[in-house]
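idk why but the lab printer keeps eating my pages so im just putting this in chat instead. protein + pyridoxal-5'-phosphate:
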Amino acid sequence: MSPDFDALRRRFPVLERKTYLNSGSYCALADTVRDAINAYMEDRLMVGANWDVWVAKNEAVRALMAQVLRAQADEIAVTASASAGINALASACDFSGERNKVVISDFEFPTNAQIWHAQEQRGARVVHVPRAADGYIPLESFARAIDEQTQIVAVTHVCFRNGAMLDVAGIARLAHAKGAKIMLDCYQSVGALTVDVKRLDVDFAVGGMLKYLLGTAGLGFLYVRGELVRSLHPSHTGWFAQENIAAMDITANRPSPTARRFEAGTPAVVNCYAVEAGLKIIQEVGTDAIEARVRKLTELCMARLEDIGWPSITPRPQHRHGPMVCVRARQVDQLFWKLMAEDIVCSFRDDNLRATFHFYNNEEDVEALVGALARHRAQFQ
Ligand SMILES: Cc1ncc(COP(=O)(O)O)c(C=O)c1O
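predcted complex ->
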């Protein structure tokens, strides 16, 4: 049975007042996520330091995140951000030998380029796969860049600038054929699409909780394929990454046998409350149902944009886009503020206005956006 999207929509109060097409920046806040944050405050007021509950919350986030990615809990590190996960992974890479190449793409979010470039001081060579003339990055371009010297291919799933989605399973095949590993940055897809790390066959995946996972800022995740965990020794570490956190041993670093070895210090407790509640909604609705809903809305949006003669620059085929639809605009910042004045919340990067969809959006949101763009068509570039 299909979820009751109208009832679900009512759980996000901001949607009564705004056309909210900004989940790719920060999700709408759900009633149960607000209640969870309030529950943390109650704990602090009434109990003080409720450590048993807090540790359980952190583990609940790990277990739920594993379910979302269709992985095992032991394969998930709960991190402070996507950047923290990438840093921990990079710290476990050895760039001193022949296999010192890192392949990234022109579609990366800055952090997934900057952190790998920071490894140049440790011997890494970072190669960028360029976009083709049509703005997309086809598999052939990755095939040219990935070779026997490639240690890791670190790529985004959906590009934060233009909404284009890469062929991750294809890139994983290319990487593995050359003996390289692949890390997926799925921050712009996870929660809105089904991201099945086993089916995609990626070795690592990072993201965070404040966008389509319905949580809050200050928490991310790193998935590490189970078979690889024990072979990797992050130097970005801390006491919460140890095999026995309670040992308080200052004589050695004894990493956890699980992906927890990629964690560091005290978990962000209040964020765990919020994120647990957000992930429960994702699980309740189900990522397959969410993806079907999001695809219906993005398809409608792209078709309606063509009707008004302001076509999206995001690739139209379903296998080439995710939850984001972009249009190019003249003075896009002005357009953004005009839409804000009409209670339509989008975002922009480069010259692109970005509309990002979640299951709580509906056809009326699409019409509100398209109607407003038709009125502001002078800004069509
Ligand atoms: C694709 C992508 N990767 C990484 C990040 C950065 O994540 P964090 O701030 O958690 O390091 C973002 C944030 O918007 C993103 O969209």
